[in-house]
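Below is how a single chain appears once it has passed through the pipeline. First comes the sequence as given, then the structure the pipeline wrote out for it. We keep one example in the README because the format questions we get most often are answered faster by looking than by reading.
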Amino acid sequence: MPDTIGIISRPAAAGEPPPIRGATKANCAKCGCQVWVSPYMQQKAKDFEKEGQAVTFQCIHCANPKPDDEFRPLAPEQLEELRQAGATEEDILGILKIVAARDLKTIRDGYDLRTGHHGS
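Resulting structure:
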């Protein structure tokens, strides 16, 4: 088990409403910007900490995982949060492909994880 669990999230724009009901903000451990943390990830962070693991949040711009770092697939609870936020099954399939490919570049280039589409 790794010493530190890094949770990668998207930056929170000033004045932006939460993308998922109940989402809160945390600071990126590298640049300090605020990132969104869904209710599921809030609970997982607490669970990891109870198990004695350090948790850091990183924005998608600062995250730079090593090739051998473990990427966990999205949990069913995260998929449900996306559905409740308005993502379609097609959107979710696109998101799952990006996560499975560890393709942070696509997300950095404007892919909206809430909708499965590139931003304007």
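The chain has a mean pLDDT of 81.

See the next section for the split statistics.
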